[in-house]
Amino acid sequence: MSEFKMFQKLIYNDVGISLADHKRTLVQSRLRKWIREFGLSSYEELYEKIASDKSGQMLMLLVNAITTNVTSFFREENQWIYMQEHLNEMFDVKNRRIRIWSAACSSGQEPYSIIIFLKEHLKNFDEWDIKILATDISEEILKKAINGVYTKKDVENMPKNILLKHFNSIKDSNGISTFVVKDEIKKYIIFRVFNLVTGDFSMFKNYFNIVFCRNVMIYFDRPTQNQLLEQFAKLLNKKSLLFIGHSESIHKKDYTYKLVAPSIYKLN
User: Fold this and answer.
1) Are 212 and 135 in contact (CB under 8 A)?
2) Please, what is the end-to-end C-alpha distance for the chain in angstroms?
3) Which chain positions lie within coiled-coil regions (predicted)?
4) Which of 45, 131, 132, 148 has its Cβ near the most Cβ atoms within 10 Å?
């Protein structure tokens, strides 16, 4: 088995990510740096180091190295517009209960965007029972999300009034500003490590009003995508929504879901 095939099999079996053959050069270049840092002599030695690490930390480092944690606040503009236009019909006005899952939250911009959006647009916001579950496979990236500290570049596209209302601005000794999400926003979000391929979905006892799973399935092959969509279907009802990335789609032969707007689906 070639060196690349070994890493392909490891990452697919343990995480579900399908590494295409054309990613060989990219993976080799990123792992070559590790070989130098760890004082190893070959890719085989690096593979053994990752595979034998019982803590799973090395595997998560590998995941971070081969995936792209690119995200931003209020990404996928059309989805926020849809939410604003359909806000009154999306949630249970009688019980005033909202449950949303940010299923690959990365460094936190997505779940923070969700609660800020609701705070800005939901009538009588303080009267609602709202919880946002934010999960990611990487414990390291979740630490950044929990801290909620962002650079000026991270928030450059956010309207100034929204930024001032929901973030604290802090300057370091060099006069460089960082922006910290206020505690009154953070309190609605629960951050957890969760693997969308091997995780136990039975731990979720209730329906979600919305599941955000954006720019994740692009890393999975079709069987793994179908498996994940089946799991999501168990956690949605007829009024629930599934938001995916604009470059993703649900196969036309999957009659479980129906398209209601670009990259937005409901159960059929």
Assistant:
1) no
2) 43
3) none
4) 132
Q: What is the pLDDT of residue 13?
A: 79
Give the pLDDT score at 210.
97
Domain spanning 3-66: CATH 1.10.10.10:
no
- The tens digit of pLDDT for each residue in 67-98 reads 665 577 888 889 999 999 999 888 988 889 99
Which residues 6+ apart lie within 8 Å of 69 measured at CB?
A: 106, 107, 138, 141
User: What are the domain boundaries of the chain?
Assistant: 3-66, 77-267
Predicted TM-score (pTM) of the model is 0.82
Nearest to 239 by CA among 76, 86, 81, 78: 86
Q: Would strands 177-181 and 167-171 be described as parallel, antiparallel, or unpaired?
A: antiparallel
User: Comparing 168 with 13, which gets the higher pLDDT?
Assistant: 168
The CATH class given to the 77-267 domain equals alpha beta
